[in-house]
């Protein structure tokens, strides 16, 4: 296993990850943070396979992302035409993740949320709001605020500089107005933003 990878995952998961990586020949590349995704899987032009994962993830989110992407690799090897987050991927993700779902690897408060998530895993753990919020408690502190904490009518800024005015909650997401264009956008409750005073 890549020695650098060891510092990004929980210590008690190293042996299990090593077993998986020995069974599947795939390059793992750790990259700078991307706001649009935690990681990805792709087949390179030379026919080899690569997984990239953001270096900014906490060890639990990193492990979850790594196994998520390995499940894409396994699914691709089994059936190149399978849907990216279809039933085949879900089964592979569940199967690969099962040995990691124990208190020696994940904190006790995360395990019930992971168990619930893996009944029917989603394309992104960020869309599972409870799990995403629980995982974020292990992130490095930053000056960001969760959308659900922004008071109605207050303004906030995204990483890309766009400025919004906080609106009402619509079912599960928050409706916000982009001030420059007047367009309405919907935000997941766990989206992180920068408040503007």
Please give a structural write-up:
- The protein has six helices and nine strands.
- The strands form two sheets. It has a six-stranded antiparallel sheet, with no helix packed on it.
- A hairpin with a 5-residue loop joins β2 and β3.
- α3 crosses α4.
- The mean pLDDT is 91.
Number of strands: 9
User: Biggest β-sheet, characterized?
Assistant: 6 strands, antiparallel
| Rg computed from alpha carbons, rounded to a whole number of angstroms | 18 Å
Beta-strand fraction estimate: 15-25%
- Supply the number of helical segments: 6
Structural class: alpha+beta
Shape: globular
N-to-C order of helices and strands:
HHEEEHHHHEEEEEE
Portion of residues in helices?
Answer: 25-40%
> In whole angstroms, how far apart are the ends?
47 Å
Average pLDDT, to the nearest integer? Answer: 91
Instruction: Show unreliable segments.
Output: none
Q: Please state the oligomeric state of the protein chains shown.
A: single chain
Going across the biggest sheet, name each strand in turn. Answer: 4-9-5-6-7-8
Q: How do the strands and helices of this protein lay out in sequence?
A:
Elements: H1 3-6, H2 14-23, E1 27-31, E2 39-43, E3 49-54, H3 59-78, H4 87-97, H5 111-117, H6 129-136, E4 145-146, E5 155-157, E6 163-170, E7 173-178, E8 184-187, E9 192-195
Parallel strand pairs: 1-3
Antiparallel strand pairs: 2-3, 4-9, 5-6, 5-9, 6-7, 7-8
Helix pairs in contact: 3-4
């Amino acid at each position: 296993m890549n020695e650098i990878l060891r510092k990004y995952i929980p210590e008690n998961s190293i042996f299990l990850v090593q077993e998986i990586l020995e069974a599947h020949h795939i390059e793992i590349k750790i990259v700078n943070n991307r706001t649009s995704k935690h990681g990805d899987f792709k087949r390179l032009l030379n026919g080899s396979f690569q997984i990239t994962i953001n270096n900014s993830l906490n060890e639990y989110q990193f492990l979850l992302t790594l196994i998520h992407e390995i499940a894409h690799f396994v699914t691709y090897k089994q059936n190149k035409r399978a849907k990216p987050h279809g039933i085949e991927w879900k089964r592979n993700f569940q199967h690969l993740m099962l040995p990691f779902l124990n208190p020696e690897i994940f904190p006790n408060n995360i395990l019930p949320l992971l168990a619930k998530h893996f009944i029917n895993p989603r394309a992104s753990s960020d869309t599972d709001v409870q799990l995403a919020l629980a995982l974020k408690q292990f992130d490095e502190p930053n000056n960001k605020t969760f959308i659900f904490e922004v008071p109605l009518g207050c303004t906030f800024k995204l990483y890309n500089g766009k400025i919004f005015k906080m609106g009402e909650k619509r079912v599960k997401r928050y409706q916000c107005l982009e001030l420059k264009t007047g367009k309405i956008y919907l935000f997941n409750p766990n989206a992180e933003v920068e408040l503007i005073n």
